[in-house]
């Protein structure tokens, strides 16, 4: 399933309310829980945190791609969080992070997982698009932007 | 008059849609007597892109490629079982690299008459970043392409096959 099929208003949160990285990760996983996409909150959070402990997924220009593998999900799941004020995510360029694409999948879904991550990487190259996404006033606006509508 | 279909290739990518495509390809092969190939591409191109974008670490690359190879085995074996249940011979193939290019190369190498793929995304984005590899293959392969939809109907068709 492509990224575009995963991005629906129920898995988008703007603005995020967390002020630091640990809370931010919890808030993103909670988005998936609240949308009914996951049952085991702790297992999913653990998978994402384990990856963050290896190295921050905060990239440059305000984007982060926290991700993880866990058998606690049967399908690839995506949550998008937007923090217009920026959060310190230990990013590669040291700047605050405003866009968070959380992706989790089971190890058996590694193909679709990799492809979805690659799509996020392509999106992240467009600074204009990222600026527009950060400015999205509500989840539906963010979804429409990603769908190119 | 020769057979209209001699070789069918179904692209498997670990999605439910590709499994549905395989079921339909099995039905087609059974009805037409065509040879059936199931091809899985381990998308190492995407992994390279993630490494370059620094979304993946080097250890992750190894780990995910290992998972993808294991998934290739798993899904090809599963599709093989589906074919065996209906007494249809199936050749399992895999390759690594850029998905649409590998599909194109396989179609040429095996001299495929019909490429069968799973349902594409129903949402057509105007954003250039969202191009589906299977869709790209569909546009470039020299043979006919069948996009399989309606999972429930295909399942019934497959189940009814003798």
Termini separation of chain B (Å)?
27 Å
What fraction strand of chain A? 15-25%
Taking the alpha carbons of the first and last residues of chain A, their distance comes to 19 Å
Count the strands of chain B?
Answer: 5
Polypeptide structure, described:
- The complex is a heterodimer of chains A (149) and B (162).
- With 149 residues, chain A is α/β, with parallel strands linked by helices.
- Chain A contains 6 helices and 5 strands.
- In chain A, strands 1, 2, 3, 4 and 5 form a 5-stranded mixed sheet that branches.
- In chain A, helix 2 (21-34) runs antiparallel to helix 3 and helix 5 runs antiparallel to helix 6 (139-147).
- The longest helix of chain A is centred in the last third of the chain and has 15 residues, at 110-124.
- The radius of gyration of chain A is 14 Å and the shape is globular.
- Chain B has helices at residues 16-32, 44-52, 58-85, 99-110, 133-140, 151-160, and strands at residues 7-12, 35-42, 90-96, 114-118, 144-148.
- Chain B has a 5-stranded parallel sheet, with helices on both faces.
- Chain B has 162 residues and is an alpha/beta fold.
- The two termini of chain B are 27 Å apart.
- In chain B, 52% of the residues lie in helices and 19% in strands.
- Chain B contains 6 helices and 5 strands, in the order βαβααβαβαβα.
- Chain B has a single domain, classed as HUPs (Rossmann fold, 3-Layer(aba) Sandwich), CATH 3.40.50.620.
- In chain B, strand 1 (7-12), helix 1 (16-32) and strand 2 form a beta-alpha-beta unit.
- At the A-B interface, helix 1 and helix 4 of A face helix 2 and helix 3 of B.
Offer a concise description of the structure:
The complex is a heterodimer of chains A (149) and B (162). In chain A, 43% of the residues lie in helices and 18% in strands.
Layout of secondary structure:
The complex is a heterodimer of chains A (about 150) and B (about 160).
Chain A: H1 3-6, E1 12-13, H2 21-34, H3 41-54, E2 63-64, E3 67-69, E4 77-87, E5 97-105, H4 110-124, H5 127-134, H6 139-147
Parallel strand pairs in A: 1-4, 2-5, 3-5
Antiparallel strand pairs in A: 4-5
Helix pairs in contact in A: 2-3, 5-6
Chain B: E1 7-12, H1 16-32, E2 35-42, H2 44-52, H3 58-85, E3 90-96, H4 99-110, E4 114-118, H5 133-140, E5 144-148, H6 151-160
Parallel strand pairs in B: 1-2, 1-4, 2-3, 4-5
């Amino acid at each position: 399933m492509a990224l575009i099929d995963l991005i629906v208003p129920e898995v988008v949160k703007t603005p995020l309310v967390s002020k630091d990285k640990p809370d931010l990760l919890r808030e993103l996983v909670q988005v998936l829980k609240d949308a009914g996409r996951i049952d085991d909150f702790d297992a999913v959070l653990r998978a994402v945190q384990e990856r963050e402990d290896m190295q921050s997924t905060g990239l440059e220009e305000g984007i982060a791609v926290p991700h993880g593998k866990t058998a606690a999900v049967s399908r690839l799941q995506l949550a998008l969080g937007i923090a217009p004020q920026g959060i310190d995510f230990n990013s590669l360029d040291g700047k605050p992070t405003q866009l968070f694409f959380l992706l989790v999948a089971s190890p058996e879904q590694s193909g679709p997982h990799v492809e979805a991550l690659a799509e996020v990487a392509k999106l992240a190259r467009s600074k204009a698009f990222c600026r527009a996404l950060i400015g999205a006033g509500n989840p539906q606006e963010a979804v429409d932007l990603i769908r190119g509508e | 008059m020769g057979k209209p279909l001699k070789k069918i290739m179904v692209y498997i990518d670990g999605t439910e849609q590709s499994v549905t495509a395989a079921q339909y390809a099995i039905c087609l092969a059974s009805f037409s007597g065509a040879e059936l190939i199931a091809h899985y591409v381990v998308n190492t191109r995407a992994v390279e892109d993630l490494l370059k974008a620094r979304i993946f670490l080097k250890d992750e690359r190894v780990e995910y490629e290992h998972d993808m190879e294991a998934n290739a085995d798993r899904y090809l074996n599963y599709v093989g079982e589906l074919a065996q249940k209906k007494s249809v011979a199936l050749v399992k193939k895999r390759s690594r690299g850029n998905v649409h290019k590998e599909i194109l190369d396989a179609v040429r190498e095996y001299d495929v008459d019909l490429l069968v793929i799973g349902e594409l995304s129903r949402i057509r984005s105007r954003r250039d970043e969202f191009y589906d590899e299977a869709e790209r293959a569909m546009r470039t392969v020299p043979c006919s392409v069948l996009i399989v939809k309606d999972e429930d109907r295909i399942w019934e068709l497959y189940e009814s096959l003798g």
